[in-house]
Specification:
The protein is mostly helical and 93 residues long. The chain is built from 2 helices and no strands. It has helices at residues 9-28, 37-61. It is globular. The chain starts with 8 loop residues before the first helix and ends in a 32-residue tail after the last helix.
């Protein structure tokens, strides 16, 4: 974990996408999962999404709001885990 110590935002962003790509490759690979897909998404993935919501709330409270985006309407594609993402489809304004 030392390589992900406090660094500038750009480096932290690269680390995030590197980890997202590693998770994507693991899920796509032949190695057996250590838990069922349901447990993975109900546990750590859902937990991560919950923390994203908490960070968005804290930003709003601090006076730096973020625009909301609907995960349901988002253009999500298998294997697209890097910084090059589709433009957001904003349901909430």
């Amino acid at each position: 974990m030392e390589r992900f110590a406090a660094t500038p935002l750009v480096e932290r962003s690269r680390a995030f996408f590197w980890l997202a790509e590693a998770l994507d490759e693991y899920l796509e690979g032949d190695e057996a999962l250590h838990a069922s897909p349901e447990k993975l998404f109900q546990g750590p993935v859902a937990d991560a999404l919950n923390h994203v919501g908490q960070l968005a709330m804290l930003r709003r409270l601090a006076g730096f709001p973020m625009k909301g985006e609907s995960y349901f309407k988002a253009d999500i594609a298998t294997g697209r885990v890097g910084p090059e993402q589709a433009p957001p489809k904003r349901e909430f304004k």
